[in-house]
Amino acid sequence: MDKKNGTLLEMRSITKMFPGVVALDNVSIKVEAGTVHGLIGENGAGKSTLMKVLIGLYHIDGGEILLRGEKVRIGSPKEALAAGISMIHQELNPIPQMTIAENIYIGREPVHGFVGVANRKAMRQSTNKLLAELGLDFDPDTKLKNLNVAETQMVEIMKAVSYNADIIIMDEPSSALSDREIEKLFLLIRRLVAKGTSVIYISHKLDELFSVADTITVLRDGRFVDSRPIAEITKPTLISLMVGREISAIFPKENVEQGEVVLEIEALSLETRVQSVSFSLRKGEILGIAGLMGAGRTELVETIFGLRKATRGTIRIKGKETQIRNAKMAIASGIAFVTEDRKLYGLNLKMSVKANITLSNLAKYCLPGGFVNRKAEKYVAKEQIQRFEIKTHSMNQIVNTLSGGNQQKVVIAKSILTDPNIIILDEPTRGIDVGAKSEIHKLMVRLAKEGKAILMISSELPEIMGMSDRVIVLHEGRVTGEFFRDEFSQERIMACATGHLKGEF
Amino acid sequence: MPLETNQEKSRRMNVSVGALLARYGIYIAFAFLIGILSLSSNSFLSVRNILNVLRQSSMNGIIAVGMTFVIVTGGIDLSVGSIVALSAVVATSLAHPDGAPLIVPVAVGIGVGILAGFLNGVIISFGSIAPFIVTLGMMTIARGAALVYSGGRPIINLTDAYNSIGGGYLFGVPIPVYLFLGVALLGLFILSFNKFGRHVYAVGGNELAAQVSGLNIKAIKIGVYSLSGMFAGFAGVVLSSRVMTGSPVAGGGYELDAIAAVVIGGTSLSGGIGSIQGTIIGALIIGFMNNGLDLLNVSSYYQQIVKGVIIIAAVLLDSKTKSAK
Predict the structure, then answer these.
(1) Strand partners of residue A456
(2) Contact B198/A355, CB-based, under 8 Å?
(3) What is the mean pLDDT of residues A309-316?
(4) Residue B286 to residues B256, B257, B279, B283: CA-CA distances in angstroms?
């Protein structure tokens, strides 16, 4: 196959709405044949949504897609495959008990005549041909369970090639790979490109994009920002394109006098996902943890809270070294954790507001023999509902029927009820509306004033900068930057988060 | 409390109707069943018949109370029928006329049940094995143990005191009925009014959230299987006393009747939702239905079919009213 020239794919003015949110607003992108097209943007910028539109997982509310100059309508991933578009998802889903050849040809196995039995020999032959074509060295009979993540990814790419895909989309393909494996991946990408295939490479790692991409398109908040050939762009401009939004929201942050250090983390590690992280947190302080998806932020706080077992490091609470092996011990040590995914880890959606609020601390409202003192429980539930202004018809309402913001307040109310000194908030305002966001922010300030120490993870730079007294930035499990309030800048934080700038300022 | 708009108010009214149906549908169905049976058979509404049904339902009811705890955590206990047999043979072996005082066989019978349930719980919690598998294994193990212990022969010749547990009357009411009532109240207090009960709902509703909330999931699971074993053990004592025999083959299929009672009573097999009150009604529905079909001279072959239809219909109705909410 010769290297083709010209525009292979064009997406024009794509608009995609979800209930209450415009996920993609008039986004256009043009992909040339035989090139690597980098797609970059913060978490939630719309990269994945755009690609899901392209492979027919989402149906667009506006705009059009042109393939080789012709308008196409892609209704499902199957139709996308038929049109020559294949996506390699971030989470791979191979069938571990099957061989490489079986995984590649699943659902379209060559068969012996009309008997309908899979022709293993033919499958093996075609797989060998693919392997030779891509310069890979595998045995087609190896079972997928014996391959590591990088090798599994190679198999996925082979599968895409076997469909004669002209466009292969790779969503954060390097997130689980080592440096050497990434080199191998790039080599494979270059081979694909040489035979005329186009690769759309989603990443937020600048170094990678600069070594593999021909063109880079930047998205931000669901909008197209810019698209330029790699030669015409530098890392600092790319960072400012990614973050260059006006900070319009006003945050209710107030200066709170800080007290003694209540939490000290020293050289905490969790396998390779958190690597020797150290920081301290003071009474009354709000410390922001910034970083991109996969930087190890959630893993870090889950380790502190005892949900994961640290491989190394020490945790000191009020100067005393503390062993935390599970959530119960963490709560007893005065730590509260408001998790990122409130439906999965935060709430019991089948229980009432009241029962959720008192769950972590029910023993305190019990009579001898473990009988719940209903009067005391009702009293405290009512108190918390008023304190956090939770909008609910009654304390007996099932939590599932509350709005996202109110659900989040229930989780916070529950955590606070254990009377913690340290409160960890993981993405406290994700998926809730602007009004509720602002209420949660006010709540944080109030808690800081009450002398709580707050550790907040957020993927939204304006929120991190608006609410924190100090920010530490994580990249690939390491702290790559630390800033005080007067040093905050979107560009500097993003530079550290993308691994572009390392060290202190 | 914030002000409601009219729209919100009307939505709330709708929710209430749905919730009312979901909550009281089972009681309405029960009343309906009693009504139909009273109209179609003269002998149904006699005191003697009602007491008879209550006594027949008591064994299943006692087991089903324990099963409710297990199912609310999202688990299942298939071993209860075999635990009934194991407890029955061990207890009756200690209830010979020249043996120990009454308290000994009763306590040991219940203790055997607790032990089997405790083992279920420990293996499920620490081995991270599905409850279905563990209790399926225990079902066979306990049955085998009962056969080994008794040499495969029924144990007879028991003391009068022991026989009176299941066969006696107090103020004209069969003693098992009181025992069922006692077990039901105990279960109700633990599940609805106790911290442990709340934790059981929490584990069943969202195990991950319960864990993050600082609950000891393993201990709670061990607790519910021990409770289930305990009630099954107690049912073994009552059953063997009622039939004046410790039979190693007793209790076959009891686990399915108990699960049916729990499910008819509105407890969700996926966990987090359910009540003892519902289970009691569920057990009574099964009991009265069997009795009614007997009185109407319906062949026992058909009874099985009717029972199956009712189980499916109950759950179908339950899921429909819940989704309507």
Answers:
(1) A288, A425
(2) yes
(3) 92
(4) 12, 8, 11, 5
Q: Are B325 and B18 in contact (CB under 8 A)?
A: yes
Of A127-131, A230-234, A255-259, B219-223, which has the strongest mean pLDDT?
A: B219-223
Contact B213 A307 (CB under 8 A): no
Distance CA A489, CA A257 (A): 23
In this structure, which amino acid lies at residue B225?
Y
Confidence class for position B251, pLDDT limits 50, 70, 90: very high
Q: Going by DSSP bridges, is the β-strand pair A470-475/A478-484 parallel, antiparallel, or unpaired?
A: antiparallel
By C-alpha distance, the chain A residue nearest B202 is A348
Residue A56, sorted as left (phi over 0), alpha (psi -120 to 50) or beta, turns out to be left
Q: Do the chains contact at B193 and A345, CB–CB below 8 Å?
A: no
How far B194 CA sits from the closest chain A CA (Å)? Answer: 4
Q: How far is B147 from chain A (nearest CA, A)?
A: 39
Strand, helix or coil for residue A363? helix
Q: Determine which of A26-35, A231-240, B212-221, B284-293 has the lowest per-residue pLDDT on average.
A: A231-240
Say how many CB pairs under 8 Å bridge A and B: 80
Question: Are B77 and B225 in contact, with CB atoms under 8 Å apart?
Answer: yes
A371·B195 Cβ contact <8 A: yes
Q: Establish if B10 touches chain A: CB-CB under 8 angstroms.
A: no
Beta pairing, strands A36-40 & A62-67 = unpaired
A148 interface with B at CB cutoff 8 Å: no
Return the closest-CA partner of residue B180 out of B267, B230, B238, B110. Answer: B238
Terminal alpha carbon distance of chain B: 23
Cβ within 8 Å of residue B15, ≥6 positions away: A401, B325
Measured between CB atoms, does B172 come within 8 Å of chain A?
no
- To 10 degrees, the CA torsion angle through B189, B192, B194, B197? 110
User: Smallest CA–CA separation between A390 and chain B, in Å?
Assistant: 9
Q: Check B12 against A393: CB less than 8 A apart.
A: yes
- Residue A494 CA to residue A489 CA, distance in Å, equals 9
Strand extents, DSSP E, A273-429 = 274-282, 286-291, 312-317, 320-321, 335-338, 422-426
Of A402, A381, A380, the closest CA to residue A393 belongs to: A402
Strand bridging mode A261-270 / A312-317: antiparallel
What residues contact B142, with CB distance under 8 A and at least 6 apart? Answer: B79, B82, B83, B85, B86, B116
**A366 close contact with B: CB closer than 8 A:** yes
Contacts of residue A308, defined as CB under 8 A and 6 or more positions apart, other chains included, come to A270, A299, A302
Nearest to A339 among B15, B201, B212 (CB): B212
Choose, out of A325, A329, A354, A359, the residue to mutate when testing the contact with B (most B CBs < 10 Å): A359
pLDDT per position as a tens digit, B189-248: 999 999 999 999 999 999 999 999 999 999 999 999 999 999 999 999 999 999 999 999
pTM to 2 decimal places? 0.76
Is the separation of the CB atoms in A230 and A210 below 8 Å?
yes
Decide if the complex's ipTM is over 0.90.
Answer: no
Q: Place B20 in a pLDDT band, splitting at 50, 70 and 90.
A: low
pLDDT (0 to 100) of residue B218: 95
As given in the structure block, the two tokens for residue A448 are: 């800081």
Share of chain A above pLDDT 90, in %: 45
pLDDT on residue A3: 42
Contact list, B193 vs chain A (CB under 8 Å): 371-372, 374
Other Cβ atoms closer than 10 A to B300: 9
d(CA B64, CA B57): 10
Contact assessment for residue B165 and residue B91, using Cβ atoms and an 8 Å cutoff? no
